[in-house]
Structure formats: C-alpha cells, structure tokens
Design goal:
The protein has 118 residues and is an all-beta fold. It contains no helices and 11 strands. It has strands spanning 8-12, 21-27, 33-40, 43-48, 66-68, 71-73, 80-82, 88-90, 100-101, 103-106, 109-112. The strands form 3 sheets. It has a 4-stranded antiparallel β-sheet with strand order 2-3-4-9, with no helix packed on it. Strands 5-6-7-8 form a 4-stranded antiparallel β-sheet, with no helix packed on it. Strand 5 and strand 6 (71-73) form a beta hairpin. It is globular, with a radius of gyration of 13 Å.
C-alpha cells in the first residue's frame, strides 16, 4: 500500500462542499483504499479513511463525516482529529495521526501525488 502511482485523479474540487469533506472509494493507486478529502476554499487535504484507534473508517455512512469547526470526528469511537493536520486531539487515540496523503489542485481537480515529490 505504500506504492503510489505517479499521479491519480481523486475528484473534481466542486464535488466537495466548501468547508466539508468527502470519501473517494477504491483508489487504485492505494490498493483500493478509501480516502478522505477535506476542502477549505481552494485548499485540500487528504488522509486514508482509517481511524488509528481500531482501523475502522471514520465516516458514519459512505462519504458522510461528522465535522465540527476544525474537527473531523470518528463516528465509531468519537476520536476527534484536527482537520488542519490530522492529529487526534481527543478520544482513545489522542496524539496519533491520520495517515496524510499528498494532493494538489490542478485545473479544478484534486490529484494524489507521490509523497516524495519535490
């Protein structure tokens, strides 16, 4: 799962509500994993859709996340992650991180890029 293809299209930016997050399912470059894509205007962040506490998805229904201010909350155990950096700030995995993925915005599209890219 650590091998990422050179560039993979995740979604169009306008498919994510501004201030919201969505899940992109079956990302081939990540062996079929689900990815959380979080949007604030033209800023996007992405993480694997896996809670470090128990390895379960964070969404309560496919692509539906509990969001409160700067927090992304795991629907299963209530772990709260800072949407700016993916750090767990409250709950059973405090101090752990969501696995961040490198993304960039190109012509209104969100692309997964290799982490070692300059």
């Amino acid at each position: 799962m650590d091998t990422i293809s050179p560039i993979s299209l995740l979604c169009r930016l306008d498919a994510i509500p501004d201030g919201g997050a969505t899940a992109i399912e079956n990302v081939a470059a990540l062996a079929g994993e689900s990815v959380i894509v979080d949007r604030r205007g033209d800023t996007v962040r992405a993480w694997l859709n896996v809670c470090p506490h128990a390895g379960r998805r964070l969404d309560y229904a496919p692509g539906q996340f509990l969001l409160k201010d700067e927090l992304l909350i795991c629907a299963v155990h209530g772990a709260s992650f800072d949407r700016r950096d993916g750090v767990c700030v409250a709950g059973p995995c405090r101090g752990e991180h969501l696995r961040a993925l490198a993304v960039e915005l190109r012509d209104g599209e969100v692309w997964l890029v290799p982490c070692d890219r300059p």
